[in-house]
Specification:
Order of helices and strands: EEEEEEEH
Largest sheet: 5 strands, mixed, barrel
Length: 179
């Protein structure tokens, strides 16, 4: 049986390590489920989720160099995020339009309108970025002409040549002193 990425197989957990579980697959093949692929939630101890000898349904997520990478969590439905009713975070503020804070469904004004506070207690500037001068978008540099390219190459050659000549002169002076 040829294993392909995305194939769903039945297997049996052979052994468990701190980093994952080895699963016996059909045709005497073995694959590994990494600890990060066991569940949709954070897994600190894989033994809380799997036991040796347990039958599991796995998905093939990779086959490289004879190693078969498996996942259990990709077959589980993704958990829905809970809607806490809190306003979505927009820009640098925790409140929509930097308006009054919500506390137990009651609107409250900031203690000091001149110094608004976010939940962490740091001051926020409501006018952040509004007084900055707008930069014009950068235009791409114009293509260089043949004369400009030649001048750059000539300048590079001359500076390289000068450095070689100065090092040769320094060597010549030290050799002439030895004689």
């Amino acid at each position: 049986m040829e294993l392909t990425v995305g194939a769903v197989l039945e297997g049996k957990v052979k052994s468990i390590t701190n980093f994952g579980a080895f699963v016996a697959l059909p045709d005497n093949k073995t694959g590994m489920v990494h600890i990060s692929e066991v569940a949709n939630a954070y897994v600190s101890d894989i033994r809380q989720h799997l036991t040796e000898g347990q039958d599991v349904k796995v998905m093939v997520i990779g086959c490289e160099n004879g190693k078969i990478n498996l996942s259990i969590k990709r077959l589980e439905p993704k958990p829905q995020r809970e809607n806490t009713g809190a306003p979505r975070r927009e820009g640098s503020a925790f409140r929509p339009n930097n308006g009054p804070r919500r506390d137990n469904n009651n609107f409250q004004k900031d203690k000091d309108e001149d110094q608004p506070q976010n939940q962490g207690g740091f001051r926020q500037n409501r006018n952040f970025g509004q007084n900055r001068p707008q930069r014009a978008p950068m235009q791409p540099a114009a293509p260089k002409t043949a004369d400009q390219l030649f001048e750059e190459k000539l300048k590079a050659f001359m500076s390289e040549s000068d450095s070689k000549l100065s090092s040769m002169r320094a060597d010549h002076r030290t050799k002439s002193r030895r004689r």
